Amino acid sequence: MARRPLARLAVAVLLPPLTGCGLAGCGLAGGPPAPRPWPSATPLSWQWQLSGEPDATVAAQVFVLDPFTSTLEVTGQLAPRRLFGPYRRLVCHLDAGRYEPTRPDAERFPPEIIGAGSPDTGDDGGAPPADGARWLDIRRWDLLRPVLADRLRLCLSKRFDAVAFAGWTATGGRPDFR
Question: What Å distances lie between residue 121 and 18, 63, 104, 136, 172, CA to CA?
């Protein structure tokens, strides 16, 4: 995996504590479970799988998964096991800056924060996707916070170890998004 996506993941995993919206900071009663130390072994092996059924036999130490399509049964199968040592971690991939109309919570995003089309290839540009994805105005934290808090609860309920926020650095396709 290229260094740039890993750097973005590291920033995204650290973003919630820095912004005050960790799992407890977004309104979760009782807060998150006690954290487990992140593996210090380097280099880590990664399985970045946002679609399809993850293969539990892949000897990756870190799995990045979609919380909407990954079931609790799947995350339970991928959780740390003796076969892979104590270092297997599951990362919940959340689009914090992208509106995706196919998501079950899509109707919760107010129209005033939905911006221009989001390219297929992420930050690198490209044609708008056929699925109608659009950038979100992440400056409107008052409107985003309830939806993202529920998405964080979803990650917690499926026993993910960390969260990778995606799309939160985009400009939204509007001139006033800076």
Answer: 27, 21, 22, 16, 15
The structural domains of the chain, with segments of one domain joined by +, span: 46-166
pLDDT tens for each residue of 101-153: 999 999 999 999 988 776 654 444 445 566 788 888 888 899 999 999 999 99
> What is the CB-side half-sphere exposure of residue 18 using CA atoms within 13 A?
6
Q: Do residues 75 and 160 lie in contact, with contact meaning Cβ atoms separated by under 8 Å?
A: yes
Assign 89 to helix, strand or coil. strand
Alpha-carbon span 76 to 136, nearest angstrom: 32
**The predicted structure's pLDDT at residue 5:** 46
- CATH class, domain 46-166, is alpha beta
Alpha helix segments (H runs only) across 52-121: 72-78
Q: What global pTM score does this model have?
A: 0.70
